[in-house]
Each structure stands twice: as C-alpha cells, then as structure tokens.
Amino acid sequence: MASRTLRFLCLPLLCMSTVSLAEDTEQSPIEETVVLGVRKANFTEITEDTQKLVDMPGSLGDPLGAITALPGVVTPAAGGPPAVRGSSPDDNRYYIDGMPAGYIFHQFNTSIFDENVIQDFQLFAAGFGAQYSQATGAIFDVRLRDPARQPLSTTVNLSLLRAGVFVESALSDSAAFYLSARVGLIQFFLPEDDEPDEDGIRIISAPEDSDYQFKTQWDLNDNHSLSLTLAGAQDFAEAEFTDLSDFVQKNPDYQGDAMINREFDSQGINWLFQGDTGLQAGITLSHYADLEEVEWGDNYYLDLELDSLQGRAWISALVGDHTLTLGSEYSENDYHYSTRMILFVCTEFDVDCDEDRRELIEDARDIAIAESSVYLIDNWQITESVNLELGLQYAGNDYTDEYFTNPRAALTWDILPILSLISSAGRYNRTPNVEYLLPTVGNPELGSPLADHYTFGFTGDINDRWNWSLEAYYKDLSELPLALDEDQPDTDQLYSNDVTGEVRGLELFINRNLTDRWYGWMSLSYSVSERTNTRSGETREYTFDTPIVFNLVGHYALTPKWDLGFRFTAKSGEATTEIIGVQENPNFPGRYLPVYGEAYADRLPTYTRLDIRAERELTLFGKDASFFIDVLNVLNADNISERQLDYEQVNATGELYIEDSAEMGTFGSVGVKVTF
C-alpha cells in the first residue's frame, strides 16, 4: 500500500568475486559477493575496497551510491531501491552493524551514510548463509567503522548537493566516539515554483533530506567490547499536482497538494567476545522506529508507523577442522496505520495500478508481527583446498503462522593456485509486505514469498595485478502475490499467492588492482527474469528486467595531488509495456486512459552514461583538505525513464500521442572537505 502510494508523489526532476569467506564477527563462511576483493583494513579504517567505491565517479562520494557498478544490480528507471539479480527490491534486506534496518537510501538513491563512517560494505547477491533471514533477494550488510582513539578532530564536507560535519575523538584509553550529521542542499537549487512545469507539477517544497550516525565503543578488556550505535534519516517533499499531470488525468480526485514525509531512528547495543582459543560470541539488541506520512488530492492520506524491537545472538567455536556457529534472531514489529484513500489492487506483475480502481476506504488499525529464526552453521575445512559450509535455518513469523526449514550450503575448491571453483545453494523465505497483509487493503491470509538460489562459477588470478570471476546463477521464486481483478471469484480477498518467478543469469568480472598509479574493473552481466500467473498460465518479463549491463571503471593518480576517474555504463532498456491506443476513462467521463499492448513485451531505449570525477589534495587554513569535481552524464545522453500519454495532445484530439520522460542531463557538482 505504501509503495503504491509513493509513486503518486514522485517528483520530476566488486571485484565481483563469489567465494566462501568467514563473516568477520561470526567466522562462518558463506557464498558472498565481495566488493573488489577481501577486507584488508582494521575496523577503525575504511577498507581499501570500499574506498574504491567512495572514489568512484557518479557516486558523489557515496559508497552505496556506487552499487549500480556491481554486477547484477539494477536501479529502476523511475528511481527507488535497487533490484538485485532479477529479484524485487522488496526482497532485499539491510543490516547496519548487525541491526536489521528498512531504510538506507534517500528518495533520490543516495545512501544515508557519510563516507567517514562506513568501514565495509558487503553485497550478498545470492546464496547467502543461514545467519541471514527474512530476505529472498539480496543482503546489504553495512559495517560502520569503530571510532579511532585519537585527539578531537572535525571534518566539514560541503558540496552543491550536501553539507555535513563529522566529529571524532577518544574518550579514554579504551573508549572513543564519532558523530556524523548531514543535510541535503538540493532544495536551494530547486526553488518553489510559481507555475507548474510541463509535467503539470508545481514544486512547493523541494526534496529535503538529512541523516545522522553516532557510534561509541568501549573495550572492556582484551576479550570483551561494547558499542552503542545510533542512526536516523528523514526525507520530505511537497508539490502540487495540477490537471496537466499524468496522475490527475487518470484520477482527477488526485488534483491538489501532495506531501510525503519519511523518517526513521534506530538505536543498538552490541556486545562482542573474542576468546583466545577461537571461541567467539556476540549479542545485538536494537530498536527501530519508522514513520511514513503521505497526503494528496481530495483529502487522501496514509500514515504508517513501525516500532520494532530486535535481538540477535550467536556463538562460534573451533572444533578440529570445523567452525560451528549457533545463532538466532528475533523481532517484534508493531504497525499502526490510518488511511483515507482510493483502493487500488495491484502488484509488480501489473502493468498499471490505475487500471483496478476500487472503492474509497477509511481505516485505522494496529497489527503486530513477531519474526524469529534460529540457525546452525558448520564450516568444514575438508582439505587445504576444499571448504564446505553447511547451514540449516528455521525461520518464520506468527502473523501468517508460517515457519520454514531452510537448508543452505556453499563450496569453495581451489583447483589450482590461480583457479577456484565456487558454488552455493539455499532456500529462503520472508514475511509478505505489510501493505498486502493489512485488513481492508490487503489479505491477512496471504502466504510468505519463497525462493531457491543456486550459483556456480570460477574465480582466478591472472597475475598479481589482474583477477577475474565468472558466475552463473538461477533463482526459483514461488508464492509471490497476485492482485485479484474483479473477474476472479475470490476478488474480495484482493491478493493471492499465485505468481511464480524464474531468474537466470551469467556475470563476468575482470579487475585490476592498484599498481603503476591506476586501477579499474569491468563487469558484464546477462540475465533473464520472468514472472508467471499460475491461474492464467501467462508468463511476463519482470518489470525491472534488464538483460545486459556493462560497467567500465578506471582511476588514475595523475600526480601525487591529483586523482582522475571515470565510469561508463551501458545497459539494455528496462522492460515496459507499449501504449497502443486510448480509451475513455469509465470512472471519469471526458477523461482518457491508455490502452496497453502485450505486458512488458517492449523495452525502453538502451541506456548509456559516462561520469567523471577529479579530486585534488590541498591545504586550507593550514589544515588537510581536498577539492573534488563530479560531472554526471558527461555525454548528455537522453536516457528515457518512462513513456506515457501526452495528455495535452490526447485531450485536444482524442487520439494517441506519446511523450517520453528522461533522466536529468549533464549535471556537475563541486565540493570541498576540510579536517580541523
């Protein structure tokens, strides 16, 4: 429900290496996608690999903003969280310092993290281990670095898009802290409009965002440490949708002011024990509060609040050639929602949510969902060259009252010193989206989406400078939600579990490590993602299906002070549905709706983009500083993000006219960072 409402308010405007490695805290190897290699730094410093993402052109200094340069990751053309290896963005799960989180990207796809606070970022694109639950797509695991025990320092970062301050200091010989606070500046470059733009939208309050992170750590002794992490973010925007806008043309009662406010705050305590004999253990206790407020049109609104208490615990021990890990995760999620809105019944399988307009509803409810999982992992070093991980997870929730036993496995075999075989398999489940479960607007009896993952590939070293990986993957998806149209006998249920999916792909990655003042990487991905309505037997390409994605990234130290870099991306156009005609709107006489051809059988034009970045180290006021320039879409490519009716022409003639919406053209930003 919330995700469908959000689209009404859209304002215009790794080294990929799949290996079995031990998770830093739990020492249990899992099949993972590692960003440009393995972790190389201590926990108070950013890893070399994550630093490469921070410096990547197009990321604007945001390591998570660079994820689209990783194989298998696609950002929807219209914006929003990423889709990974053919799965839905809703299938992903996010962790911050071991704490589950639901919101790590701002509205315009930049992450909520300051570059100074991230120690490491791992993307587990498929086949991830049993310690992760409630995800059928991918895992984004963000580790915030530990505070350094150093004299008080302050870093100020200012660019055209964002301003931030970062403060770090020791508190004692065994404790330290840091605080990051940032605010977006785009609202100063998109002032309030007196008149609507060509899309019929008048900006009242340009998008505003802010975020913060605080972490303090205390080493109790050589074996025990305790940390406290606070994190939060907010996004706000307000606009008027006039009669010329696409949304209002389809639904005239949407005309008027619209507002969206999204924010969260989280707090977590983490205890870690590292014994002298290989015994390790950890406990994480956290609280997460999320608020989403949306208002639009004829006094329509949606308020959705989440208050969640979460706990994770694990213990790991060495037993001969085996590393055994036992762990659990539990969360109590209390949702409160109130709404007055027109009910639209739709999912990602549907071409246009506006096609199934139902009645006006007003409702307010509280629901509680408890999610839990327990797991056991055996990491067996069979020989010096063969490692096998076997995991078993039992996970589910008490709202749908479904619990699943999920076996998982990962194998690494070093066939030669320069060649390794890698493979994984696993079964996964997650709780359905709350908007599909809520009474009145959803089906409380809806079942949990399921997935089976399989991966197989090779990694190798050409020499000390070059390495590569080639991996194939397959995902079998089931129990996905289907929106029930009014012709179905059980249409009053609104949704059923009658969609399946199939995803298959192949990814090639070639990486050059930093030598002779330069490094870079190339990735090429091929994938096919489909969804099938098991009631009708109809199979469609997935809405975010993007078969071919190519990325080329290079970075060169021109002088000891100047660094230059580029990123080039080319990819197939996103799947779309051709508009082949117009018809009168049955709900609003005198208005028109599009007539669609075969669902998702067409594609947007090929997407290309070149970004460049230059950075220079310097001294300001006697302090260390750097100056950077980012230019996005240097070639000013006209990348189409959407095709819709040109209602001004349609209303005047009653005939079919199509208009394209494109991404922003060439865009530049400059900034400076100073440390006091």
UniProtKB/TrEMBL annotation:
Protein name: TonB-dependent receptor
Keyword annotations from UniProtKB, A to Z: Cell outer membrane, Membrane, Receptor, Signal, TonB box, Transmembrane, Transmembrane beta strand, Transport
UniProt superkingdom: Bacteria
Location(s) in or outside the cell: Cell outer membrane
Location, primary (coarse class): membrane
Lineage: Bacteria, Pseudomonadati, Pseudomonadota, Gammaproteobacteria, Cellvibrionales
PANTHER family: HEMOGLOBIN AND HEMOGLOBIN-HAPTOGLOBIN-BINDING PROTEIN 1-RELATED, TONB-DEPENDENT OUTER MEMBRANE RECEPTOR
InterPro entries xrefs: Beta-barrel_TonB (IPR000531), Beta-barrel_TonB_sf (IPR036942), TonB-dep_rcpt-like (IPR039426)
Signal peptide: 1-22
TonB-dependent receptor-like beta-barrel domain location: 208-633
Topology in membrane: Multi-pass membrane protein
Family: Belongs to the TonB-dependent receptor family. Hemoglobin/haptoglobin binding protein subfamily.
Transmembrane recorded as keyword: yes
